[in-house]
Amino acid sequence: MNPRQPPSHSRRTALQLFSAGALASLFAGPRLARAAEARPAPKAKALIVLWMNGGPSHVDTWDPKPGTRVGGPHKAIRTATPGLSISEHLPELARLSGKLAVVRGLTSKEGNHQRASYLYHTGYAPNPTVDHPSLGGWVSKRLGAPQGGLPAFVSLGGPSRGAGFFGVQHGPFVLQRGGAMPQNVAHAPGVDGQRFDARLRYLDSLEQDFATRTGDPKVEGRRALTGQAVALMRAPQLSAFDLSTTPKATLDAFGDSDFGRGCLVASQLVGAGVRFVEVSLDGWDTHTDNFTRTKKLMGVLDPAFAALLQELERRGLLGTTAVAWMGDFGRTPRINANEGRDHHPGAASAVLAGAGVRGGQVVGETDAEGQKVTKRPVSASALLATLGQLVGLAPDDAAISPVGRPIALTDGGLPVPELLL
Q: Under a CB-based contact definition with an 8 Å cutoff, are residues 327 and 54 in contact?
């Protein structure tokens, strides 16, 4: 065979692939319509995800094992919730345990950071044939942006997983630090509103011509993104990102940290109508010096998470906002030679609170050392399906991928009924 000549069956293969995609799209039509009709009534108007980047140790936070050979130096404290003791370094959250649903049965097979992050953001294991939308992307696509120019999906403290094949227009608006105003939201020096609008019209004309000639959906995505940027510049509630006039007592309650300020901004954003906010706290990849590092991290997490729930309640938003705490995976109960804990996807914890969540309970259980889930395992796709249902997305809600195949919200995961009111 001539290596420069394509195989003789390539055209047939292409037609087969096209036909398969076309048939999938054809038969998906009724299914998509049924899924749209069957969407559950949302319990929450907005969702805040607290993402613990690096993989938080479940046995040092929400599932401690005091008195065992793997327990480490952190002590456990009781809460008012039956069967729930948590780390001594989470005292404020312990006092709010009646609002929390602690999932101790979380489990997956993904022990690599990138793959695990993909799984817990999309409900799917990575697949080279499709770039799955994250839950934030689904929320943006299905629920849309709020009135007034703010984005539907905001990520504070670092980039979140994007919107996959939904396009960049449904991806996150990213700010590296909570409390910092978005940059470049004012006109450049010497450019007044009239001149700015003229430039926009010229840009739109160029992009429209290019979009017509190429037919590339990515071009339309970029055009939509430009429109979103302009809307943000003109948004009357742009001040939701700003903490410059926030009372010192409120700032202090969240703690002096970027994560704390991110949580405070998240409460302001959902109050302004933003649908999905992710706030990241980095540093949980504790292969070395686990106990010193987790103590410090919990010192940041505890006041911020607790103050977020209290601020949402004070503002009358806790009944319309769901909050989730989660990360890449758990950590090994076994303590390594560097006083650290390594990646452990087989057992992990997550926490839910707020609108539609049945608080004051523990779901799932691990063995005496936190090595294995022994009761009520919960998969990543089930957790994502639960969060989706809270905001009105059905687990079988599906969208057509670029190759014509229907892709559901998660990879077969169903909501966990015990977690829902």
A: yes
